[in-house]
Amino acid sequence: MSNYTFENTYGLSEEQLKQLDQAEEMMVRMDLGNCEKLLLSMLDEDDECIPVLCNLGLLYGRYLSEFETAIEYFEKVLILEPDNAWARDSRRRYLRYV
Description:
By secondary structure, the protein is mostly helical. The protein is built from five helices and no strands.
């Protein structure tokens, strides 16, 4: 599971919460292709969903080593939520690799 835990402060639907849980389980099981598909489909429905953006950053950074893509997702989070310390720290971590 990701280190990014949240209360439902983003007003996510039950379906979104369920899908996020599924995505995080897929990451743990290293089912990365399906995880990516699920998260991107969730982003299609809500392109400003902070938890989805954070999980995509995590997927691309930690699991796929696509650091530039991870940074882009964390930057999107920071545009929407400038005080998001987790996204800021994660972006800084992956900036070291590009």
